[in-house]
Fold this sequence. Notes:
By secondary structure, this protein is an alpha+beta fold. The chain is 39% helix and 6% strand. The protein contains 3 helices and 4 strands, in the order ααβαβββ. It has a 4-stranded antiparallel β-sheet, covered by helices on one side.
Amino acid sequence: xxxxxxxxxxxxxxxxxxxxxxxxxxxxxxxxxxxxxxxxxxxxxxxxxxxxxxxxxxxxxxxxxxxxxxxxxxxxxxxxxxxxxxxxxxxxxxxxxxxxxxxxxxxxxxxxxxxxxxxxxxxxxxxxxxxxxxxxxxxxxxxxxxxxxxxxxxxxxxxxxxxxxxxxxxxxxxxxxxxxxxxxxxxxxxxxxxxxxxxxxxxxxxxxxxx
Length: 211
């Protein structure tokens, strides 16, 4: 009787182990369903994440543009002139659409003393001299780059008539000309003025200082 009891108990244990083993695994179909669900969730989350990143970059660009405009105006307050040796607004357009902005930023950062004779530091953005086009920093070429690695563009009132031409004309970025001493802008993610280079500010991903 004891032998039969032990034998019966062993059979039950084996059956229980087999049952537990079967319950602990996943079938191929279940794995495929889980993978499909994860893929769908990632597809929903990624655009939201991209949107958050784009907004953060625009905020950074706006802050940088404000710093540039403030620095140029502070230079004017101190020296009674803008940090340029040009005599027309068109010639005093620097960065993404004009002459390299290195000369101006060297003056504003007191790296040179051609115009900034008292060596006042008007702006001090982060710098990465190991790269030509770092994002959000001044690179080895001396230009201040936006979060998309394109040089910030800016224009100064070099003829001192208290106005500068609007780079967008009358296409949604305010009046033309803009009645300010200096304006600055970023081309945004598409790295072109307006919508894919059409010079229209409305609906574009550009960032500007005067609005």
